[in-house]
Amino acid sequence: MEETSLISKLESSDSRGLHSLYTHYLQPFSDLTNPKKTKRSARANDDQKTLARSLAKKFLPFLNRALGILPKRLADRTKFGGDGDGEQLALEFFDIYRLCLDCLGSVSSQLLCKPYSVHVQRVRMVHCLEAWGRLKDAEAECFWVLERFKEIDFGTKSVESERNCLLPNAEKGGHDKEYGTLVVEIAVTLVKCLSTSQSKDGDDYRRIIRLVEELRPWFRVLDASTYEKLHRVLVTYLGRCAIFVVGEPAFADEDLARSFCFTTMAEYAMSSNKDDIYKFARRICFSLFSLQDSTATFIIDLLICVLDSLAHEGKIVDDASDIVYRPSGLFAKPPPRNRNWVP
Fold first, then answer.
1. Name one Pfam family in it (predicted).
2. pLDDT tens digit string along 47-59?
3. 76-83: long-range contacts at Cβ-Cβ below 8 A with a sequence spacing of 24 or more?
């Protein structure tokens, strides 16, 4: 099928079956996207490079057009209808999206761009997956990209410990602010996905604690404006996760809840908006006072964590007159019990 016809169908099609047409048209990429797992000779490697160069020259304009259309179409759910057929059509579009991204990635060595630039397109797809509530798929794509980031050669010394980390090491590539912003954006997206999904799997929250700890050096790479924007989003969704973990009866692991709250309070303490930590602390305190099945030790530990953080903040802010800790202000009236609370 002609390239123009495929693009036209992608822009306006409301029926299924388009994925098979794209698969057929992009079949020449199969030798690159699904290489045989055998040791190749130098000649075979040269042949692969020649093939990649040829495919890039022929298909790159088509891939760029398709990847420009797909996020726009998937951004408007109303155009897919509200029934099961609309959902299935959207899933087919996501399959086409992945196919085009895989093809683009297979020829990335032939492109005049930074080594991580092709992954910007995949992050755009992640946000589309979020919009469609495909949170597990979005998380999987985020972790896939982070693994690819670890493989990038920035011409700096390899960091051995990176293998056991969720994020690439900031010592390798941290000089590039655009790259740093992308790493932080992906990590923040993972926290947002967990908050939205309200997973009851404790391992998901333990992984986020690790992620936040590894993320701190990356925030130092960002300029002030980008830092403030992304860190505010991070603490907002961390706060939602913490409230859920503390107040959810399904969580019997008090050590996890304690660790998650400690991590969240530490991030709030670094927020540029000092009011946020007080709003979050107030919410946590009321969640704790409403608990019936938790041990007194657990409740006291979290209260001490909250009050210590507030006391520390009261010492370091320049003008504490409006936000200094007052028991009557902290516990005066409980906020609405809303899982989607935003500080």
1. TPR_ESP1
2. 788 888 999 999 9
3. 77/131, 77/132, 79/14, 80/14
Helix or strand (DSSP H, E) at 296: helix 296-316
Question: Based on the domain organization, do 100 and 17 belong to the same domain?
Answer: yes
Give the tens place of pLDDT for each residue, 97-109: 999 999 999 999 8
State the Cα–Cα distance between residues 174 and 163, nearest whole angstrom. Answer: 17
pTM here is 0.85
Residue 314 domain boundaries: 245-343
Q: How far apart, in whole angstroms, are the C-alpha atoms of residue 82 and residue 79?
A: 9
User: Residues, the chain, total?
Assistant: 343
CA atoms within 13 A on the CB side of 123: 20
Structure tokens at 305: 């964590």
Q: How far is CA 11 from CA 16, 68, 76, 79, in A?
A: 13, 10, 12, 11
Summary mean pLDDT of the chain: 83
Count of C-beta atoms within a 10 Å radius of residue 263: 20
CA 162 to chain CA mean position, Å: 19
How many domains is the chain built from?
A: 3
Under a CB-based contact definition with an 8 Å cutoff, are residues 68 and 124 in contact?
no
